[in-house]
Design goal:
Layout (H helix, E strand, L loop, with lengths): L1 E5 L4 H13 L4 E6 L19 E5 L5 H11 L3 E4 L6 H6 L1 H22 L3 E7 L26 H20 L3 E6 L2 E2 L8 H10 L4 E4 L5 E3 L1 E2 H14 L4 E5 L4 E3 H12 L6 E4 L14 H7 L7 H14 L1 H8 L2 H10 L3
Parallel strand pairs: 1-2, 1-4, 2-3, 4-5, 5-6, 6-11, 7-10, 8-13
Antiparallel strand pairs: 9-12
Helix pairs in contact: 1-7, 2-4, 4-5, 6-8
Bound molecules: nicotinamide-adenine-dinucleotide (NAD) and thymidine-5'-diphosphate (TYD).
Nicotinamide-adenine-dinucleotide binds next to helix 1, helix 4 and strand 5.
């Protein structure tokens, strides 16, 4: 079997490549990635020289280049992780989100139609459902929850999901969609909450908590997400959406405090800063469908996963030091100075 993974030099895509290559040593894995600021070839160094792995530095919005890859590789499965993924950046520059997340998705599916595939899988997000109130812990996102987006990021992902369902209905493309809650784990880009707080704490820098820190996210260890996608592409029903989440709701401030405790750093590093515009209050997934249909359950408890993640950042300083020494510094100054 041949799996084409887009966005495989990013956080979840790279973890998915490692998962697949370990679990299916006979499989061929093709990575297509533009290597934006969020993509790192060094992340893939352990698989780069394997005979059953190939990397293409390709932009999914470049139709000709994408078709060339399909012409050469003829993949069986296409799993589309490639995206602009950071809400804060989408508030500053929405345009690139529309290009990659919407146009890129349609070009990937056009290639699938042209060359023929067994399955196209769209890696979507729970953010397409908008947010839930903080005072209604009884409410969860199900696959039937209406799309109701808040940020340019989530709107672009929702638009892509609609296109995916349209390609299924109109052209009969064999698609599946997964909508996962917030991931954490190794190779998470340091602009996102958990790695940003770990790295700032290690440098004894202020930890910028938006608003009052009471927004709630439903956190899932990245390997659990990868296992869920593996199940969906092989056993999930074509044309279906599957929510992925582990009933692990946490307030931002509580996570930040856990990180400080893990690193033995003082809570005085916490600094409350101006809230994100349109900040979603609470995400919470109901994963009943994927559990009942595919038997999926998350394996990693949050306390263990966070411990492992903190250890990973301590043991892999070179990986993130290279990142934060570059364009990241300009981004950080722009977003956080005098906030
Ligand atoms: P990421 O930002 O770490 O990685 C994105 C990757 O896509 C990078 O390697 C980047 O170079 C690549 N890319 C960006 N634009 C491209 C283009 N035009 N052509 C080819 N490659 C391009 O993102 P992530 O956190 O790994 O997220 C992966 C996917 O999972 C995204 O689709 C995201 O919406 C979704 N998702 C993420 C989370 C999360 O918590 N991180 C949760 C649910 C869903
Ligand atoms: P983030 O990791 O950007 O993921 P998402 O917005 O997709 O859920 O942010 C997670 C939560 O942490 C979100 O409520 C915003 C908050 N946050 C901060 O409080 N400070 C920060 O510096 C960042 C990056 C996020």
């Amino acid at each position: 079997m041949k799996y084409l993974v887009t966005g495989g030099a990013g956080f979840i895509g790279s973890n998915f490549i490692f998962h697949m290559m370990k679990k299916y040593p006979e499989a061929e894995v093709i990575c297509v990635d533009k290597l934006t600021y969020a993509g790192n070839l060094s992340t893939l160094k352990d698989v780069m020289d394997k005979p059953n792995f190939r990397f293409y530095k390709t932009d999914i919005t470049d139709r000709e280049a994408v078709y060339e890859v399909f012409e050469k590789e003829h993949p069986d499965y296409v799993i589309n992780f490639a995206a602009e993924s950071h809400v804060d950046r989408s508030i500053e520059t929405p345009d690139i989100f529309l290009q990659t997340n919407i146009i890129g998705t349609s070009i990937m599916m056009d290639a699938c139609r042209k060359y023929g595939i067994t399955r196209y899988h769209q890696v979507s997000t729970d953010e397409v459902y908008g947010d839930l109130p903080l005072d209604r812990p009884d409410l969860f996102f199900t696959e039937e929850t209406p799309i109701h987006t808040s940020s340019p990021y989530s709107s672009s992902k929702a638009a892509a999901d609609l296109l995916v369902m349209a390609y299924h209905r109109t052209y009969g493309l064999p698609v599946t969609i997964s909508r996962c809650s917030n991931n954490y784990g190794p190779y998470h880009f340091p602009e996102k909450l958990i790695p940003l707080m770990i790295i700032n704490a290690l440098h004894d820098k202020a930890l910028p908590v938006y608003g009052e820190g009471i927004n709630v996210r439903d956190w899932l260890y990245v390997e659990d997400h990868c296992e869920a996608i593996d199940l969906i592409i092989h056993k999930g029903r074509v044309g279906e959406v599957y929510n992925i989440g582990g009933h692990n709701e946490m307030r931002n401030i509580d996570i930040v405090k856990m990180i400080l405790k893990e690193l033995g750093k003082p809570e005085s590093l916490i600094t409350y800063v101006t809230d994100r515009k349109g900040h979603d209050l609470r995400y919470a997934i109901d994963p009943t469908k994927i559990h009942n249909e595919l038997g999926w359950l998350p394996k990693t408890k949050f306390a263990d996963g966070l411990k492992k993640t903190v250890e990973w950042y301590l043991n892999n300083q070179e990986w993130w030091e290279n990142i934060i020494s570059g364009e990241y510094q300009d981004y950080y100054d722009k977003m956080y100075t005098n906030r």
